[in-house]
Amino acid sequence: MKMILLGPPGCGKGTHGKRISSRYDIPIISTGDIIRVAVSSGSALGEQVKGYMASGNLVPDDIVIALVKDRLTQDDCKNGFIFDGFPRTVPQAEAIDAMGICVDMVLSIELPDQVIVNRVTSRRVCPSCSAGYDVNDNPSRDGVTCDMCGATLIQREDDKAEIVENRLKVYHEKTAPLVAYYEEQGLLHPHRSETGYRLYSIDDICNLNVIRALRELDMPLSEIRAYLDRRSPGELVELLERRVVRWRGES
Ligand code: ADP
Ligand code: ZN
Questions:
Q1: Is 52 a pocket residue for ligand 1 (Cβ < 6 Å)?
Q2: Closest CA to 176 of 5, 3, 8
Q3: Is the distance from the beta carbon of residue 39 to the nearest atom of ligand 1 less than 6 Å?
Q4: What is the biggest distance separating any 2 CA atoms in the chain, rounded to whole angstroms?
Q5: Element holding 222 (H helix, E strand)
Q6: Which residue's CA is the nearest one to ligand 1's atom 6?
Q7: CA 64 to chain CA mean position, Å
């Protein structure tokens, strides 16, 4: 499955990505993480991009696209992947199309701006294993070190209030148009939340399983979504039978 996680900073893309990744055994490709690694390594590329990141602006498209292309050559991507934080602009989305990548679905998480500001400024991350925490709602056990690996948690420089405001502005200008872009392609699977605390339940994850199976049978996402909205298992069986019959006829 090839999936895109779309949404404003701090909407929980990383958290959802990890769940989906372990469920389907496909890697998360987080351009934010790739860029952070480059910056902390002090490489020439890192030097070139660190200013954009620190000010909450986007790294230029050609650089990000090259990083993603390079990541996709690794072996673990062959059964699919989850893009987290990519694409962030229309040219990046067009680059995905130009690479001949057939995206199965785009999970779009939408949250009110004020919720985002609160969440991002209370976010803490592990610099070593990139686990995420929240000082109010999901602190680590001792509030200081990472539960997973023991490293001391940090607040990302770009998670500080002044920078978050700019990141949101950039999100609305450059990234939000991708919602319409993928809606038009029939790939958008929107999740709107007023609070942002709605995490994927096991039910939702099972739904993703159903979605993947149906996508493999070439069912349009709009049809699948209509089924999921109604949650009618009888109808699902019927839809599946119709698809399988058609699919057998074709092969
Ligand atoms: P979040 O999802 O919390 O906003 P990320 O970790 O995805 O943060 O990204 C952090 C920063 O890395 C962005 O503000 C931007 O500077 C840079 N970045 C990440 N992904 C991209 C991308 N696809 N295009 C351009 N810049 C990016
Ligand atoms: Zn850790």
A1: yes
A2: 8
A3: no
A4: 60
A5: helix 221-230
A6: 32
A7: 15
DSSP structure string for 71-135: HHTSGGGTT-EEEES---SHHHHHHHHHTT----EEEEEE--HHHHHHHHHTEEE-TTT--EEET
Our mutation pick for probing the ligand 1 site, out of 58, 154, 174, counting the most ligand atoms within 8 A of Cβ, is 58
pTM: 0.79
Instruction: Return the ligand 1 atom nearest residue 33 CA.
Output: 6
Atom of ligand 1 nearest to the CA of 170: 14
The tens digit of pLDDT for each residue in 219-237 reads: 777 777 777 666 565 666 6
Find the Cα–Cα–Cα–Cα dihedral 37, 110, 140, 24, rounded to 10°: -70
What phi and psi values does residue 28 have, to the nearest 5 degrees?
-95, 130
Burial 71-95 (b: 16+ CB within 10 A, else e): beeeeeeeebbbbbbbbbbeebbeb
123 is catalytic: yes
pLDDT beyond 70 at 80 = yes
pLDDT in tens, 151-181: 999 998 899 998 999 999 999 999 999 999 9
Q: Is 167 a catalytic residue?
A: yes
Q: How far apart are CA 37 and CA 48, in angstroms?
A: 13
Q: Is 127 left (phi over 0), alpha (psi -120 to 50) or beta?
A: alpha
Hey, what amino acid is at 138?
Answer: N
| Structure-token pair, residue 127 | 């610099």
Return the SS3 of 5.
Answer: strand
Q: Which ligand is nearest to the CA of 170?
A: 1
